[in-house]
Amino acid sequence: MSRVGQSKITIPEGVQVLQEGNILSAKGSKGELSTLIDKLVVVSIKDNIITVVPNDKSPKGRALWGTTRALVNNVIQGVSVGYVKEMEIVGVGYRGSMQGNKLSLSLGLSHAVEMDVPDGLSIKMDGNTKLSISGADKQKLGQFAAVIRSKRPPEPFKGKGIRYVNEYILRKEGKKK
Fold first, then answer.
1. What one-character-per-residue DSSP string does 87-144 give?
2. Each residue of 86-116: pLDDT tens digit?
3. Distance (Å, rounded) from C-alpha 126 to C-alpha 12?
4. Which residue of 18, 97, 107, 137 is most buried, as measured by CB atoms within 10 A?
């Protein structure tokens, strides 16, 4: 039995939720998002409460029960509150800057790495080594943060690289003479 799927989702103030066929869309202060609902799951909206119930007791239907509830909750939370990922650049000479809609990273390579910021996301630089990415779409935000981190992942000997603020890097000792 899904423990995630059993819990109900309350719709916060200022969020409008519509269900048309197998598409559930939500509109709030942070934007507008939608998610696809599988046929094996039934989503019902009553009195500002969303409930998700499996259509049949097959293993696939029960597996999609909790997943669908989590996706719907991510959409509701994204349009009402939004999501934020905090990252930091660690290393001598490593820095980042915003130039219009482009993120420019100097990571000790022969050239600066420039990345276009996707629509719906915004980056705020705090100095030149701390950045916070914010947006309504949790999947798009996490994917873009992972792409930024992949440009120079943290290494275990000196800890240099791009990492999440809450990430712990297991440090190694290094060579002995």
1. EEEESTT-EEEEETTEEEEE-SSSS-EEEEPPTTEEEEEETTTEEEEEES-HHHHHHH
2. 999 999 999 999 999 999 999 999 999 999 9
3. 31
4. 137
Tens of pLDDT along 37-84? 999 999 999 999 999 999 888 889 888 999 999 999 999 999 999 999
For residue 118, what are its two tokens? Answer: 């996707």
The structure tokens listed for 166 are 């809450």
Question: Does 56 map to a domain?
Answer: yes
3 state DSSP class of 52? strand
d(CA 72, CA 49): 12
The answer on 127 and 99 residing in a single domain is yes
Distance CA 39, CA 61 (A): 9
Contacts of 100 (CB under 8 A, 6+ apart): none
Last residue of a domain, one of 60, 80, 100: 80
Per-residue tokens: 130: 């701390």
pTM: 0.90
Query: Per the structure, how many domains does the chain have?
Result: 2
What tokens does 16 get? 């409008």
Within-domain flag for 174: no
What does the alpha-carbon distance between residue 164 and residue 83 come to, in Å, rounded to a whole number? 14
Do you know the residue count of the chain?
Answer: 177
